[in-house]
Amino acid sequence: MIKGSIVALVTPFNEDGTVNFGKLGELLEWHIANSTDGILVLGTTGESTTMSHEEDDAVVEYTLKKVNHRVPVIAGSGSNDTSTMLMKSKRYADLGADALLVITPYYNKANEEGMIRHFTTVADNVSAPLILYNVPGRTGCSLSVSAVERLSKHPNIIGIKEASGNISYAVSVSRFLSDDFVMYSGNDDMIVPILSLGGSGVISVFANTNPKEAHDITAKWFAGDHAGSLALQQKYLDYIHALFCEVNPIPVKEALNAMGMQVGGYRLPLYEMAEKNKEILYGEMRKVGLL
Predict the structure, then answer these.
(1) What residue spans of 124-243 are helical by DSSP H?
(2) What distance in Å separates the CA atoms of residue 119 and residue 111, rounded to the nearest whole number?
(3) Roughly what angle, to the nearest 10 degrees, separates helices 82-95 and 53-67?
(4) Over its length of 291 residues, how does the chain's per-residue pLDDT go in tens digits?
(5) H or E segment at 203?
(6) Cα separation of 181 and 174, whole Å?
(7) Is there a contact between 144 and 114 (Cβ–Cβ < 8 Å)?
(8) CB-CB neighbours of 289 under 10 Å
(9) Rounded to whole angstroms, how far apart are CA atoms 203 and 219?
(10) Residue 72: count of CB within 10 angstroms of its CB
(11) Which of 53, 91, 96, 183 is most deeply packed, by most CB within 10 A?
């Protein structure tokens, strides 16, 4: 099981909108050097929804070769079409991904049994383990607590990225945690609360700009320094909120570019931040020493 801070990595783009693999390599090396515990590519933060299957494959393949087993690599292989999710999951498993992040079926949503089978169809047919992704603010649907309970018993489903922002839901899900099924915070402002429920870490946007600090929040908690972990969570809380003053990953890419990381722009329908929101973001970056 992967413990600690897993960065939900941005996908850097060139000026013409193509994937900047040179910059991707630099980011991967930077994260490994700064204590990031795991790498997620093709998540929401990676703008995978506007990338082609060929680009997705190339990003996963490049990342796995570059990282070369130094830290675990998770590939986002989700889709609202189960057959597409299965195809992508098989491909990334064959490439050597350590785990796969699979999302609830957005837009068509599915009923309870369809939701269960959406995940078990993939879990039954791929070699890499699955991490469920519950993010109703993005998908318009949520995994029910009863569905999580059933899915947690599947031998090839090893965890859940819980990004509902609903602590009551997270408490309910925490009853199913074990050595074989773990929970990661999907919200950077709730890392410590999820850890306090027995969580195993965070899949983090914040870690894109602050890999060491995201790692330290989790590492301090696991070492028994709960006060130190909470103090770090609180220190960066306003900056974390600023990273979501517009839809992710717009602010975090803006932050990285302001830091000189040159990760490029976005693919439509994402677009540049409003100036007033840039000022909010820059202000919080200055407070935590990023600018």
Answers:
(1) 136-139, 145-151, 167-174, 191-196, 211-222, 226-235, 237-242
(2) 13
(3) 30
(4) 899 999 999 999 999 999 999 999 999 999 999 999 999 999 999 999 999 999 999 999 999 999 999 999 999 999 999 999 999 999 999 999 999 999 999 999 899 999 999 999 999 999 999 999 999 888 888 999 999 999 999 999 999 999 999 999 999 999 999 999 999 999 999 999 999 999 999 999 999 999 999 999 999 999 999 999 999 999 999 999 999 999 999 999 999 999 999 999 999 999 999 999 999 999 999 999 999
(5) strand 201-204
(6) 10
(7) no
(8) 8
(9) 14
(10) 18
(11) 183
Tokens standing for residue 150: 């059933």
| Catalytic annotation, pick one of 66, 88, 161, 220 | 161
CA separation for the pair 198, 203 (Å, rounded): 15
Cα three-residue angle 140-145-148, rounded to 5 degrees:
90
- For residue 228, CA distances in Å to 167, 215, 286 come to 22, 12, 22
Distances (CA, A) of 187 to 23, 50, 110, 223, 259: 26, 23, 24, 22, 23
Q: Which of 92, 133, 239, 266 is catalytic?
A: 133
161 is catalytic: yes
Q: Which amino acid is at 243?
A: L
Q: CB neighbours of 10 closer than 8 A, spacing ≥ 6?
A: 27, 45, 46, 47, 208, 249, 252, 253, 256, 263
Distance CA 221, CA 201 (A): 10
Helix and strand numbers (H, E) in the chain are 13, 8
End-to-end alpha-carbon separation of the chain, Å? 35
Cα 45 to Cα 271: distance, rounded to the nearest angstrom: 14
* Structure-block tokens of residue 262: 């040159």
